[in-house]
Amino acid sequence: MIRLYGFWRSLAAYRVRVALHIKGLTFEEETIDLGADAQLASAFRTVNPQAAIPALIIDGAPPLTQSVAIIEYLDEIHADPPLMPRSSVGRARVRSLALMFAADGHPLITPRVTRYLAQAFGADEASRDLWSRHWLRQSLEQAQIRLAGDAATGAFCHGGALTLADICLASQVLGARGFGVELADLPEVRRISDACFDLNAFRLAHPLTVRDAAR
Amino acid sequence: MIRLYGFWRSLAAYRVRVALHIKGLTFEEETIDLGADAQLASAFRTVNPQAAIPALIIDGAPPLTQSVAIIEYLDEIHADPPLMPRSSVGRARVRSLALMFAADGHPLITPRVTRYLAQAFGADEASRDLWSRHWLRQSLEQAQIRLAGDAATGAFCHGGALTLADICLASQVLGARGFGVELADLPEVRRISDACFDLNAFRLAHPLTVRDAAR
Asked: CA B7 to CA A39: how far, in whole Å?
C-alpha cells in the first residue's frame, strides 16, 4: 500500500504524483491542507518532522520525503520506465536541471516563505505574488537558455525520453501558469512542458484531479 | 584537469570542494566573485547559463552544475570512499537530508535572493541578516529533530560513514556560524558537524583556505 501525503496545490506533491503514475503505481493521497497549516500539526510531524509535504509511505516503511529523493527512490526500485539516463554524465545533467527547479526555483515560493515575507516585511498579497512570479519566471528563463543551447536537449529535457528533469520542469510551468507568468518567449520551455502535459501520467496527476482541490 | 568555478563564501561551492577533497581529486578553483556580480558576466554565463556557482569542468567536458548533482556524479565515477549508502532506502534518506539543506534551506539565503529583498521590500542589511538567520536556524532545527528521532542516525547523519547528507549539513552549519545563529540547543547538529569539521577534507575545503577569501 502506497500513501502519499500531499496537497492539491503543492508543486512538489505534483512531481511525486506524476512519478507514481509514470511507474504505474497505485496510491492513496491524504490531504495535508497547507492553507490550514496542517503540515505543522503534531499528527503530521510524526510523519515528517520537517513539517513539509510530500511524504510517501510504502508498505508501512519509514516515510520518504523530499520530492526529488522520492522520485529517485521510485526509479531505483521500479526501473521501468526509467526516469534517469544510463550514463553518469546524463544523470548529472538531469539532476542539475531538476535541482534548478526543485532547489533554486520552487522553495522560494512555498507558503512558509511567502508567509514570512508578510511577517518580516509586511508584504501584502500583491507583492507576494510579484515575488512568486519573479522566481518562477527566473527559473524558466534560465531553463530556456540551458535547454536551447545544449545539443543534449531532445523531445524532452534530456534526449527523447522523459526524465526527472521534465517532471520538475512541468511542475514549475504549472506554478508559473497559476501565477499568470508570461511564457510566450520561452519556446523550449513551452515545447517540452507541452509534451509532458500531453502524457497520461501528467493528466492523472494534475492538481485539479486531487480530492479536496479547490475549484 | 579539474576546474571548479567557486567563491570562498559560497556554501554550495564549499560542498563541492569537500567532496573533491574526500575523493582525493586535485583541482584548481577559479573565483567567481559574487560580491561583484561576476556570476552574471557573459564570460561566466558561457560556463553556466544559470549564472550560478558552483560549476565543475573535468578534462574539458561540458560543465557540471548544482552542488548535489556534482557530488552524486563524483561519487559515481570515483566510488572510493563512497558518499552514498548502498541500499535504495539509505540513498533516499541521505538525499532527503541533503535536499533539506541544499534545496529548502540554502537557496533562500543566496545573494540573488537577499538582493531582491532589498529591491522589492526595501529590506536593509539588518533585516536581510535576520532573514538569513531565520532560514539557517529553521533548517538546522528540523535537522536536529530528524536526526535525533531516527535510529538510522549514527556517528554521521546516516550510520557510521560520511555521506552527501553530512556535507550538506556541514555547509549549513558553516553558514549558520557565519551569521551567529545559536546552535547550543541542537546537540545532534553540533555533534555531527563537529565530526565533519574534524576531518581533513573539511579543513582543506574551508572558505578561508580559498584564494581571494576576504580575511
From this structure: 36
Please indicate whether, in this complex, the C-beta atoms of A96 and B51 are within 8 angstroms of each other: no
ipTM at complex level: 0.96
Strands (E), B17-173: 28-31, 55-58, 64-65
pLDDT higher than threshold 90 for residue B78: yes
| Minimal CA separation from B206 to chain A, in Å | 23
What is the rounded average pLDDT of the residues B30-42? 90
Q: What type of residue is A160?
A: G
What cell was used for A90?
546524463
CB–CB contact B73 A89 (8 Å): yes
pTM of the model: 0.96
Find, among A19, A15, A21, the residue nearest to A54 by Cα: A15
Grid coordinates representing A80 are 521501468
Residue B165's SS3 state is helix
Residue A177 burial (CB count, 10 A): 13
Q: The cell 497559476 sits on which residue? A: A178
The closest CB to that of A88, out of B73, B117, B131, belongs to: B73
A55-58, strands of its sheet edge to edge:
A28-31, A2-6, A55-58, A64-65
- In chain A, what residues touch B103 (CB-CB under 8 Å)? 66, 68, 99, 102-103, 107
- A72-131 pLDDT, tens per residue? 999 999 999 999 999 999 999 999 999 999 999 999 999 999 999 999 999 999 999 999
A88 CA to chain B: closest CA distance, Å? 6
Residue A108 and residue B104: Cβ atoms within 8 Å?
A: no
Rg of chain B over all Cα atoms, to the nearest angstrom? 17
How many inter-chain contacts (A to B, CB under 8 Å) are there? 132
- The CA distance from B61 to the nearest CA of chain A, in Å, is 9
pLDDT, residue B199, reads: 98
Mean of pLDDT values over A3-16: 96
